[in-house]
Write a structure and sequence with these properties.
Rossmann fold, 259 residues, 5 helices, alpha/beta
Length: 259
């Protein structure tokens, strides 16, 4: 079975401000990554309600106050009922409704809150964001979610901070509690089995990057967007690492990929 995951040793966790954000796209995972804060964007509430039905999914360190924001157009339960159900699991849901007519997505609004909280609580740390249900649904939504993630990374990079946004989506890997795609600046990491294919794509800013743990390793300039297509992971620890001052996407190749 494919086994894609991000670096999660204790030293990495200590250096990161870790946030989970649930969106309304497909997601069949049953676990929350260890985190310092939890945000829910509109219809992502359904995933969180399902996850909390299994008490084993919430570790003792999981924050007990979650932030919900959205315009309510993709939820099938009233917020009052959702709050009651989460309260039974020991979760306090703080709700921040948005107007239906707005100039940003629910995810974009959640990211503004996440960025502000990171800078208020732990600006000395790197930002590590785990997005549940951000891919695999509507293509326009998935594209906008990727660009919103790129924007957060660019904002972090503008003052020399490292940020990585891990998208976890069951339609891309058999084990949906693992990462299929990461958007990052500074250093990006992705775990897979040795011999698996991945691609590296520049999104914003500097197109130069250094790759470690891959068949094609070294320093490259990705001025052509497809230059980083179909590399192969070779590292014995199953981790590919990329260092850059720009914003890149690091993606595991799907089984049905072609091009």
């Amino acid at each position: 079975m494919n086994s894609v995951e991000t670096v999660a040793d204790s030293s990495a966790k200590a250096a990161d401000f870790r946030v989970v954000c649930a969106l309304a796209g497909p997601f069949s995972g049953h676990e929350l990554p260890e985190c310092d804060a939890v945000f829910v964007a509109d219809g992502g509430l359904a995933h969180m309600l399902r996850i909390t039905q299994n008490g084993r999914s919430l570790s003792a360190s999981t924050p007990r106050t979650w932030q919900w924001t959205g315009d309510g157009d993709s939820i099938s339960i009233s917020l009052d009922d959702a709050c009651r159900q989460l309260a039974e699991a020991g979760i306090d849901l703080s709700c921040h409704p948005l107007p239906v007519d707005k100039d940003l997505s629910d995810f974009g609004a959640a990211l503004d809150g996440i960025f502000a909280l990171w800078q208020k609580i732990a600006p000395e740390k790197s930002l590590r964001l785990f997005v549940l249900g951000g891919l695999g649904g509507r293509r326009d939504h998935a594209l906008c979610n990727l660009m919103e993630a790129a924007d957060v990374c660019a904002r972090a990079g503008s003052f020399g901070a490292r940020a990585q946004v891990d998208f976890r989506d069951g339609s891309h890997v058999p084990h949906s509690d693992h990462t299929a795609l990461a958007v990052f600046t500074g250093e990006g990491t992705l775990h897979a089995r040795t011999g698996e294919s991945f691609s590296l794509v520049p999104l914003r800013g500097d197109t130069k990057a250094r790759i470690e743990g891959a068949l094609y390793a070294g320093d490259f300039d990705f001025t052509r967007g497809s230059r980083g297509l179909s590399n192969v992971l070779t590292a014995s620890d199953g981790c590919v690492r990329v260092h850059t001052q720009g914003v890149f996407a690091l993606a595991l190749a799907g089984a049905d990929a072609s091009g």
